[in-house]
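Translate sequence into structure tokens.
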Amino acid sequence: MADDLVEAIAVQVDGKILIGGRFHNLQGVSQAYLARLNTDGTVDFGFEPFPDGAVRSIAIQADGKIIVSGDFNAIGSQHVIE
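Result follows.
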């Protein structure tokens, strides 16, 4: 479970679930704002986006690329366009 609000959910073609929101911990593990769950519900630790603020919505394009929006300025080392 997340320690704060989950505001967005999207399911990938492979059945993995993306969740975004205001949380900082997920299933007792430090995982802030955006996470991916495996098909069995465990955290996918290979998914490491690291946004610096809350994620409000998630969309998955037909080509599998993930689009997120929210209250952040960067994801990992990539700065976003305002």
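Note: The chain has a mean pLDDT of 93.
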